[in-house]
Structures are given as structure tokens and as C-alpha cells.
Specification:
Layout lengths: L1 H5 L1 E2 L2 E2 L1 H21 L2 H8 L4 H4 L1 H23 L2 H17 L1 H7 L3 H27 L6 H9 L2 H16 L8 H5 L3 H35 L14 H9 L2 H22 L1 H11 L4 H29 L5 H21 L3 H14 L2 H10 L6 H10 L3 H14 L8 H5 L1 H18 L3
Antiparallel strand pairs: 1-2
Helix pairs in contact: 2-8, 2-10, 5-6, 5-8, 5-20, 5-21, 6-8, 6-12, 7-8, 8-9, 8-20, 9-16, 9-19, 10-12, 10-16, 14-19, 14-20, 14-21, 14-23, 15-16, 15-18, 16-18, 17-18, 17-19, 17-23
Length: about 425
């Protein structure tokens, strides 16, 4: 009954549309977390540095940034449902582009496929997040978004599972140095085989998305909070950025997304180094590291449901500050605790991150009404943090050890800075920002 009350406004039930829109949260969770391990996979397949492999994240999160404002203008002109449909269509097209990319045998076409795919994800997130906020009483909006976002890690777990069992475990066991020793013909054969393995899950998800697109097309969705279709984007942004809670929320979200992607992308490098030092082969070390990544996502998922409950009793700003503080302490453990203990700290960080995206989002957009459609664009554009910060961390890793710290450990100073920024935002919100 309490869950139902979260999804009812003026006597109108939003349970059914909430359930359908929540499935989209799982879909972009899948895309995000099947992609994170691909930094390592592409680096191996094309014998590139970690920095070059991290261009996957640049293309992936660059699509979010590029399409956020057009997506906001589109849904303001038409409807949330239209935004979801266009987002699903671009998602499917980007997934299908992996096949011609594989046929070229080059790295750049894959980056284009990721970019198109995430232009679709930008439409989905710009549409679905504010739509969920509008499905009930504004006083429970942050709790409602936390509930919807709780299903995002379910898709993430599916993406991690597929990455581990259908991509990483099936790639050639040859490491980068071994591949460099192959003849040109042998190298091309191994590369083509690995690319065939890599693209298969993307083609399958493209088919799944197409089916969902058809179902969404014929599903009747409510048209709540869609009365104003004017395109006064600049005045809306001026109103939004005049409010410190929104302005600083965009900054905090930038650092949060960068934090999340760094922790989930480079857990593979962190764990692989530790397990190879214990005598494992590179492939076995990567597979085991991905299992730790899955454990991290399970913690993230469970913690998000717990946080949704805790928000009934604690103010969002307070919880945000305390979770960021706990994450900062764990990150210090990642940096200075060598071996498996550091890996445990890195896994535990996910429990601290679970609260952050929907809570920052809900705090930043609270009380903006129709302007929330445009405000959502600014918050989705802040996902650019996932494109900017991981390459910086990769550059630190490629630079080698820093003093007594292994390069991977030292690189986690960037996530530490992100936690401190988020903690400061939570503290300011708590004090009435």
C-alpha cells in the first residue's frame, strides 16, 4: 500500500506505466555494464594501451552529453513517450552497427556504434527520470526515483554476466605481447574471431530492444505534466542555473558519474594485477576480477533498496554526505592497502555509490515543475564525467608506479576527489543550500 501511494497522484494510479518505464532503467543498466569490461577487451584485441582502450568510454558517455539538450527539446515539444520511443530506436540502431563495425576490422567504427547507442540512452534517461519524478506526490519524488533506479543494477548485473560468460571467457587467451608475436595473417584471424564473440550480445540486445519498441508503440501511456510544449530552453536554463541547488547538483553529478565509471571500469585492472602477481594467467585473472565486479554490483543493487527505505527517515542531503564520507574512507583503503584487502575496499565502494545518482537528481530538480524537462538535460549532460575522468585515470595507470604505490592504486586518487566533491554538496544541501 505504501509503494502504491508513491505512484498515485490526484486519484490516478501510475503503477502500470511506472513498471514499463522502469524496464528502461534495466536496459540502460545493461548497456553501461556490458561496456565497462570492453575497455580491457578492446585493448587486448587491438593491442592498444589502456588509454586508447578507454576511448570506448569517451564515445559512450560523449553520446549522453551530445544528445541531452536535443532530447530535452524533443520531449518538451512532443511527449515523454515519444522520447522513450526515439531513445529505444537509437539504442537498437547502435547495437546493430556492431556488425558492420566488425566487418571493417577497425576500432573507430565501434566507437561510432557506441556513440549512436548512447545517443539513444541519453533520450531514455532524459525522458524516464523526470517522468518517474512526476508520477506522484512531489514530496516522495526522490524516494520514487530511488525505487525506479533500484532496478537499474538488475540490468547492470545482466550486462556483467553476459560480459563475463559470453565475451571475456570466450576471447582468445593470448595476451597483448603474445599477439604482437603473431604473423599478420594469424593476428587478423585471432582478431576477427574475438570480434565475432564481442559483437554477438550487442546484436541480440538490438533484437530485444526492437521488440520492446514495438510493445511501447502500442502501449497507452499517461500524459502527465506535459501541458506546456513551448521551447523556451534558454529562459528555462537561466531559471535553473540561478538556483544553487541545481547548479551545484549538475557539478556533483558530473563527478559522481565519473566516480562510478572509474570504479567499475578499473576494478578489472586492479584485480588482474593482484591475481597475476599470485601466479594466475592474465585471462583467469580477468575472469576472476569480473566476478568481484559482479559482487560489487550486487552490493550496489541491495544498497539501493536499503537507501530507498532509509530516505523515509533521513533527509536526502544528510544520507548523501554520510555515504560519500564512507566512500572516501574506502577509497583510501583502495589506494594504500595493497593486495586483496584493497580489492575488498574497492568492491565495498559500490554500496556507498548506490544512493548517489537518483538522490542528486531528485534534490537538483525538486520543485521545478515543467522546467524539470529542461533541467533533466543538464543533469544528463553531466554524465560527460564518465567520458572525461576515466581516460585521466587510464593515463595515470599507463604512467607507471608512483613512489611505493602501484600505478592502479595511485590512480584512485581521482575517485577520492569525486567523493569529496559529492560530500561537500550533500553537506551544503543538508544546511539548506
Amino acid at each position: 500500500m505504501k509503494t502504491y501511494s508513491l505512484l498515485c497522484k490526484n486519484g490516478v494510479s501510475y503503477v502500470a506505466p511506472f513498471a514499463l518505464i522502469t524496464s528502461c532503467f534495466m536496459l540502460w543498466g545493461f548497456a553501461n555494464d556490458i561496456t565497462n569490461p570492453m575497455v580491457k577487451a578492446f585493448s587486448k584485441i587491438f593491442t592498444m594501451s589502456v588509454t586508447e582502450g578507454s576511448l570506448v568510454q569517451v564515445a559512450f558517455y560523449g553520446g549522453y552529453f551530445a544528445m541531452a539538450i536535443p532530447a530535452a527539446m524533443f520531449i518538451r515539444r512532443f511527449s515523454y513517450k515519444s522520447g522513450v520511443l526515439l531513445g529505444l530506436a537509437l539504442y537498437a540502431v547502435g547495437s546493430f552497427m556492431f556488425f558492420p563495425a566488425k566487418m571493417t576490422g577497425s576500432y573507430f567504427p565501434f566507437l561510432m556504434a557506441y556513440f549512436v547507442l548512447t545517443c539513444g540512452l541519453s533520450f531514455l534517461e532524459t525522458s524516464c527520470n523526470p517522468y518517474v519524478l512526476s508520477m506522484g506526490d512531489e514530496r516522495t519524488a526522490t524516494r520514487r526515483l530511488n525505487l525506479a533506479q533500484s532496478f537499474n543494477p538488475v540490468g547492470s548485473l545482466m550486462g556483467m554476466y553476459v560480459a563475463m560468460h559470453f565475451i571475456q571467457s570466450r576471447l582468445s587467451p593470448l595476451g597483448a605481447e603474445q599477439r604482437m608475436e603473431l604473423s599478420d595473417a594469424q593476428f587478423e584471424a585471432v582478431k576477427n574471431s574475438d570480434l565475432s564473440v564481442l559483437i554477438a550480445p550487442y546484436l541480440v540486445i538490438g533484437i530485444v530492444i526492437t521488440v520492446i519498441w514495438v510493445a511501447m508503440l502500442f502501449m497507452k501511456m499517461p500524459r502527465s505534466a506535459e501541458s506546456d510544449r513551448s521551447l523556451n530552453v534558454l529562459p528555462a536554463f537561466k531559471r535553473l542555473f540561478s538556483v544553487a541547488r541545481y547548479r551545484e547538483g549538475v557539478v556533483a553529478q558530473f563527478f559522481y558519474v565519473g566516480l562510478q565509471i572509474m570504479c567499475w571500469t578499473f576494478i578489472i585492472q586492479y584485480g588482474t594485477r593482484i591475481f597475476m602477481e599470485q601466479g594466475m594467467s592474465e585471462k583467469d585473472a580477468e575472469v576472476l576480477s569480473q566476478k568481484y565486479n559482479i559482487v560489487a554490483m550486487v552490493l550496489f543493487c541491495g544498497s539501493r533498496f536499503i537507501c530507498t527505505f532509509l530516505l523515509r527517515y533521513f533527509r536526502p542531503g544528510s544520507l548523501l554526505m554520510y555515504f560519500a564520507l564512507a566512500g572516501s574512507l574506502l577509497t583510501l583503503g583502495v589506494i594504500f592497502c595493497d593486495g586483496v584487502m584493497g580489492l575488498y575496499c574497492l568492491v565495498a565502494i559500490s554500496a556507498c555509490m548506490s544512493l548517489m545518482f537518483p538522490t542528486i537528481y531528485g534534490i537538483a530538480l525538486e520543485g521545478f515543475g515543467e522546467d524539470a524537462k529542461i533541467g533533466a538535460a543538464g543533469l544528463i549532460m553531466s554524465i560527460l564525467g564518465g567520458s572525461v575522468l576515466p581516460p585521466l585515470q587510464a593515463a595515470i595507470i599507463d604512467g607507471g608506479a608512483i613512489g611505493f604505490l602501484p600505478a592502479v592504486n595511485a590512480s584512485f586518487v581521482l575517485p577520492l576527489v569525486c567523493f569529496l566533491v559529492i560530500m561537500a554538496y550533500g553537506r551544503r544541501v543538508r544546511r539548506g543550500l
